[in-house]
């Protein structure tokens, strides 16, 4: 498709489905080599379909030792890291705040929030050794708009925005940029787990009156991973069809 990421290397978590798969595919099409990280095992079929530019790696992104291992794999295979895309996430349990169990809250926080910290914590040394790079954290419009029955999800996504900003400020002088993509109603596997009536309500309330596509989010990720965005850091970019503009 192009060469906007030619010569670059990337780690993408949650790479096997939905937005993560679209990002992995697009990164490879634009010339990058990608370590495709997923817990499900489906990253193997994805890597097989993309060829030698994509290397599968199985990991639980909520566990520090497994995050350390995936960055060591990136070091071994690529010798450097240019782009870190912390994309893995789950919707989690749906319940009112007083009914939301500690167990369910911790599960969502560990995958959606803690994993972003771990990704940056263990990935920054590789980016610094490379002389800089781009961190792309996957947030959500739920970081700025409350969603009923989703206190853990909204809390984690809100935290991602601030973790991104802190890291951007701390490492800008070292050539490392950090930005947060905030998707809205994207036609993906995660969205499909919500009640159909909820999804339709989101579409009806959107100025564009449609769902977004994973490929549209992937196009934004390519821009943020490329040198075209070299003066952009510490920000969140909404890709939600205008919902949060209302």
What does this structure look like?
With 246 residues, the chain is of the alpha/beta class. It has a single domain (9-245), classed as Rossmann fold. It has helices at residues 18-29, 43-50, 64-78, 102-129, 151-171, 196-205, 214-225, and strands spanning 9-13, 33-38, 54-58, 83-86, 133-138, 176-183, 236-239. The longest helix has 28 residues, at 102-129. The mean pLDDT is 96.
Annotate the secondary structure layout.
Layout: E1 9-13, H1 18-29, E2 33-38, H2 43-50, E3 54-58, H3 64-78, E4 83-86, H4 102-129, E5 133-138, H5 151-171, E6 176-183, H6 196-205, H7 214-225, E7 236-239
Parallel strand pairs: 1-2, 1-4, 2-3, 4-5, 5-6, 6-7
Helix pairs in contact: 1-7, 3-4, 4-5
How many DSSP E strands?
7
Based on Cα principal axes, name the global outline.
globular
Q: What's the SSE pattern?
A: EHEHEHEHEHEHHE
Name of the CATH architecture: 3-Layer(aba) Sandwich
Output the CATH class name.
Answer: Alpha Beta
Strand order of the largest sheet: 3-2-1-4-5-6-7
- Beta-strand fraction estimate: 15-25%
The whole-angstrom Rg is: 17 Å
Strand count, sense and barrel status of the largest sheet are: 7 strands, parallel
Can you tell me the CATH superfamily? NAD(P)-binding Rossmann-like Domain
CATH topology, by name, is Rossmann fold
């Amino acid at each position: 498709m192009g060469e906007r990421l030619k010569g670059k290397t990337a780690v993408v978590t949650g790479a096997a489905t939905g937005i993560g798969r679209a990002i992995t595919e697009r990164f490879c099409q634009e010339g990058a080599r990608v370590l495709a990280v997923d817990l499900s095992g489906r990253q193997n079929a994805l890597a097989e379909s993309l060829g030698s530019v994509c290397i599968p790696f199985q990991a639980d992104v909520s566990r520090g030792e497994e995050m350390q291992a995936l960055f060591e794999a990136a070091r071994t295979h690529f010798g450097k890291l240019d782009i870190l895309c912390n994309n893995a996430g789950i919707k989690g349990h749906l319940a009112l705040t007083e009914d939301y169990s500690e167990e369910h809250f911790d599960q969502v926080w560990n995958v959606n929030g803690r994993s972003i910290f771990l990704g940056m914590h263990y990935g920054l040394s590789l980016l610094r050794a490379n002389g800089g790079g781009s961190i792309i954290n996957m947030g959500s419009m739920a970081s700025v708009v409350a969603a009923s029955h989703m206190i853990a999800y909204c809390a984690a996504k809100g935290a991602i925005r601030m973790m991104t900003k802190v890291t951007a400020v701390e490492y800008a002088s070292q050539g490392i940029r950090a930005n947060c993509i905030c998707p809205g109603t994207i036609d993906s596997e995660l969205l499909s787990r919500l009640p159909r009536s909820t999804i339709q309500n989101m579409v009806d309330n959107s100025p564009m009156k449609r769902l977004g596509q994973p490929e549209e989010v992937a196009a934004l990720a390519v821009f943020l991973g490329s040198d075209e965005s070299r003066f952009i850091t510490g920000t969140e970019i909404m890709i939600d069809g205008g919902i949060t503009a209302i």
